[in-house]
Structure formats: structure tokens, C-alpha cells
Amino acid sequence: MSEFLDLNTSEMFWEIVNKNINIGLLPSETINFKESNGRILAQDLFSPIDLPPFSRSTVDGFAVKAEDTFGASESMPIYLNVKGEVFMGQETKIMVEAGEAVKIPTGGMLPEGSNAVVMIEYVDYVGEKMIEINRSVGVGENVIYKGEDIPKRKVILNKYHKIRPQDVGALAGLGIIDVEVYKKPKVAVIATGDELVSPENVLGVGEIRDINSYTIGTTLEEVGAEIRYVGIIPDKFDFLRESIKNNLDCDLILISGGSSVGVKDMTVEVLNSLGEPGVLSQGITIKPGKPTIFAMVEGKPILGLPGHPSSSFIITQVIVKPLVEKIMGIKEKRIKCNIKAKLSRNLDSDKGREEYVPVRLIESAERNYIAEPLVGESAMISTFVYADGYIIIEANKEGLNKEETVDVYLY
């Protein structure tokens, strides 16, 4: 296999991906709303009811006509007759007239004729059936009206939306029990390397345990994928080819190792042997992660990832996660969680390659953050274990200066 002579930039890589993978092609299924967190909606969701279904108080107090309280103050209180009381979870048929008030709890149904609630803190009893109010309220104050939160027939969540815990709460409040979502994408993770053994094995001379399968798999499980851990495949053409063929029922195949230049690195040849179009991108201008491969076989995307743990981890974060989200049908742009920090020292970089550097965050005496680069060989996983996130050195830069403000993208 030849060296990577025509490396693609990140932009060029995604152009190739977008030409070959369509969004939202997974079949859908109907599930209970309690199991929907993290799933992708397969249809727009409309509110079947008004929420709240009745006008209600947001405080403990007295339901009143707001205009009856205008001008009220501690020195000039307003006096109103108490007509009755609203009870939680019960319908009220009390009609509030001018000069009247009705006691009401938080969440209680607003009586007809009232348009505001005075908080209990601003009310004193001056008799069994009379109160004095020492603060005025405006129309609608301390009240949430019927349908004000979510009106009936409103689109509350759009197709391709990734459901979050707060969305599950909204579904519960609206009584939406059955939710149509796309099925989880199935991702096969294949580890290659004659030196690799399972984490359960006792190490022999020259052996190392498989790290990448589990950093890749657990990362993608957080995104919402269903992971098939294929296991370790020897560095042999026929073994790798057979393993790929056996997993083409998955929506994505990831091959850890076998993508860089070397005697045993035959991944490109294997992929091309499985049919057109085969390998579409071989190498990307990212550090670490240069030897990343993208291929299509029988309509299924396949990625060849670097074998070094840190390279594999970065490519999983910046390439594989967005690719899985695309397969899942997520159209909403993923907002990276980042904070500002000052760099603790100078950093050199290879111009022409987008570099990802793990950093540890340290809080300064001024309660600002300092980003301490954790630089190590790409074969090391410890730099990412101790890191809080990473910074990006753009391809057109030769490095960053000490105390330069940087964006730290948190894991």
C-alpha cells in the first residue's frame, strides 16, 4: 500500500461522506416514552391537549380581579371579601365578582372572573371573611393560562430531534405515551492486530490488550448506537475480508488498526476487493489521525481508524461521532461544549494539518482556567485519561503562544 499522497482536508472528507450517505435511512419503531431518551424522532410530534389544561395559579395566595388591587400599598391597603377556597386537584365553580377574593394554592384552578393572584406574603386577615392586600398585582400576574405553556396542536418536537430528559417530561405532561423513533444504528467494531489480546487475557511477551474497541464502542453508545463488538481479527487478508462481509448487516463498520502504512496493513486492499466503489478517501489532514480511511461496500459505510489509542480516540470524537449522528438522522447541529482558557506554554504544530491536543484544566487564583497540554506519543492512552478536553490548532497555524486564549472542547 502506498503512502498517503493525496490527503483530504476535513472539509473534503465530509464532502465525500455527504455524497455517499443519506440522512435518516434507518427504519422506525414505536416505543414507550419512558424509553425514548436519546432516541431520534421519526415524525413531528403535535400536542394533543392544551398545557396546562386549565388556567392555574403559580403561587399560594388569593385569586382576585387585578383592577381591585390597583394602588394597594402597606400604608394604603385594599380590603376584599373572601368568597371561598380552591382545592388542589378539584374543579372550582366559584365566580369572582368585584371586591371579592378566593383563597388558592399553587397549581390550583383559577376561578372564573379572576385574572391575577396576590401572593400570600402580601395578604393579612382582618376578619374571618375579609383580607387586606398591601401590594397591587397586574393582569395575569402569578397566573399561567390554559394552553400558555403548550397550546393544543402545536408542533412540540420536530422529526429528527434527539429526545432529551426535559422532552421526556413534556411527553409525560401531554400524555404522549407511544413515540415513533428511528431504530438505533448498529455499529460493528473490529480490532485488528496480531499483537492484540482480549482484556481478560494474561499478557504474553509482545502482546497488548485491546483498548480501542472499548473507547470507540462506549463513546458511540453515549451517542445512541448499538455496538457489536466483533473482537480481534488477525492481520491476514482473508480473515479481515470475511469479518467485514459477516458484518455488512450493520449500518456502519469500524476497523481499528490496519489503516496506516506497513507490511501487514492491507485494509485498503481488502475493502477494494469487496466491490465498488470501495475506498473513497485514504488519509486526512488531522493530527493525530492521518491514516483514516473511508469506504463504501454494498451501500454500507466503513471507516478504517488508526491503531494507536490516542489517534483512534480523537478520530472517534471528531469524525465517527458526527458520522453516526448523520446515520441516525440528526439534523440539528451538534453544539460543542467548550470553555475559554489560557494556554500554559507555547505549542508547536505542523502547518497544513489540523491538530488536536489534549489538555488538563487548572483553575487559577483569579478563578480563570489554564489549559495545560498533555503531549505524548499517539500510542499512549494516558494523555486522554488525564485530560478534561482538547484544543484545536488550525491547519494554517504553526502553533499557539503561551497565555493565548483557546477554546477547550470538553469530553
Automatic annotation (TrEMBL):
Family: Belongs to the MoeA family.
Entry keyword set: Magnesium, Metal-binding, Molybdenum, Molybdenum cofactor biosynthesis, Transferase
First and last residue of the signal peptide: none
Organism of origin: Petrotoga mobilis (strain DSM 10674 / SJ95)
Reaction catalysis annotation: adenylyl-molybdopterin + molybdate = Mo-molybdopterin + AMP + H(+)
Cofactor dependence: Mg(2+)
PANTHER family per the UniProt record, alphabetical: GEPHYRIN, MOLYBDOPTERIN BIOSYNTHESIS PROTEIN
EC number of this enzyme: 2.10.1.1
Job of this protein: Catalyzes the insertion of molybdate into adenylated molybdopterin with the concomitant release of AMP.
Molecular function terms, GO-annotated: metal ion binding; molybdopterin molybdotransferase activity
Protein name: Molybdopterin molybdenumtransferase
GO cellular component: cytosol
Pathways per UniProt: Cofactor biosynthesis; molybdopterin biosynthesis
EC supergroup of this enzyme: transferase
Domain MoaB/Mog, first and last residues per copy: 188-326
InterPro entries for this protein: MoaB/Mog-like_dom_sf, MoaB/Mog_dom, MoCF_biosynth_CS, MoeA-like, MoeA_C_domain_IV, MoeA_C_domain_IV_sf, MoeA_linker/N, MoeA_linker/N_sf
One Gene Ontology term from the biological process aspect of the record: Mo-molybdopterin cofactor biosynthetic process
